[in-house]
Amino acid sequence: MEAYHGKAWTLTVHRKDIVNNVLEKYITAISALISGKTSPQDFEVWYLDNWKSESEEKITEPMYNPLNYLFCEVDAYCSIEEIRSEDDLDEAGLIEAAKNTLELLRKIQG
Fold first, then answer.
1. Alpha helices, H only, the chain
2. What is the DSSP letter of 37?
3. Which CATH fold would you assign to the domain 2-109?
4. Domain parsing of the chain, residue ranges
5. What phi and psi, each to the nearest 5 degrees, are found at residue 22?
6. pTM of the prediction?
7. Per residue in 35-84, pLDDT tens?
8. Is the separation of the CB atoms in 43 and 29 below 8 Å?
């Protein structure tokens, strides 16, 4: 019985480390966008690729809503003004969405 609890505890700690690493990955990338270290176009490609390939076990329920919100906003981002519709986001709108998401993720991070 103790071995089972030990193994369960190890798995719980391991999952927590994975979740914290994923959370930190997104916080770092979003911060780079906001600070101008990453262009909106590069962030768009990175975020869409990463979010679509993220496994469910790495995303906790509190993380899901802010990260999915940002996914929707990144998906609505259009860098080309000539083809941008009124429903699309420009760079300022994307950065504002990133700031809102970053604030929520930092609260989750503690």
1. 2-35, 40-53, 61-76, 91-109
2. S
3. Four Helix Bundle (Hemerythrin (Met), subunit A) (1.20.120)
4. 2-109
5. -65, -45
6. 0.83
7. 999 999 999 999 999 999 887 778 888 999 999 999 999 999 999 999 99
8. yes
